[in-house]
Design brief:
The chain has about 160 residues and is α+β, with helices and mostly antiparallel strands. The chain has two domains: about 70 residues, Ubiquitin-like (UB roll) (Roll), CATH 3.10.20.30; about 70 residues, DNA polymerase, domain 1 (Orthogonal Bundle). Helix content is about 35%, strand content about 15%. The termini are far apart. The relative contact order is 0.15. The structure holds FE2/S2 (inorganic) cluster (FES) (2 copies). The site of one FE2/S2 (inorganic) cluster (FES) has 10 residues, from loops. The site of one FE2/S2 (inorganic) cluster (FES) has 12 residues, from loops.
């Protein structure tokens, strides 16, 4: 069946099964920037924003969010037009294999939209659901901190 979804501020017609997860529906229709790690709600690789709140898309039934606002990491920024957070992740060395990075960026973006000056603890808490097997998290936390500082210096939101 086909159904329309509001993804990254555009209406997208997705081909999907009625019982499919949002993660599968997205990936099967070209939104492969959303990664599948565990498929069990444990790793955060599949994180997207649903009505501006972070959710693990592997735990959401696609048809239940048909008319709701969905944002993937590409709605935050792309390779050719990266968001400041993505630029700082790259320049800080916060990604190695990069598999966790889409979910990490979504979590960081969501945090900085809500809290422009997070403490270390608040950053750790915001990234708590996102697993990384490569970096040891130090560079990731540093990248979020640097993003917050630069956003404040420039007095802009994490757009
Ligand atoms: S793939 Fe969804 S939380 Fe791991
Ligand atoms: S950079 Fe490889 S899993 Fe995080």
């Amino acid at each position: 069946m086909k159904a329309s979804f509001n993804i990254n501020n555009s209406v997208s017609e997705l081909e999907l099964n009625p019982n499919e997860t949002l993660l599968n529906a997205l990936r099967n229709n070209g939104f492969t920037e959303v990664k599948c790690g565990c498929n069990e709600g444990e790793c955060g690789a599949c994180l997207v924003l649903l009505k501006d709140k972070p959710v693990n898309s592997c735990q959401v039934l696609a048809m239940s969010v048909q008319n709701k606002k969905i944002k993937t990491v590409k709605g935050i920024g792309t390779l050719h037009n990266p968001n400041l957070i993505q630029k700082i992740f790259a320049s800080t060395g916060a990604d190695q294999c990069g598999f966790c990075s889409p979910g990490m960026v979504v979590a960081a973006y969501s945090l900085l939209k809500e809290n422009s000056s997070p403490s270390n603890e608040e950053i750790v808490e915001a990234l708590d659901g996102n697993l990384c097997r490569c970096t040891g998290y130090v560079k990731i936390i540093e990248a979020v901190k640097r993003s917050a500082i630069i956003l404040q210096e420039n007095k802009v939101e994490a757009e």
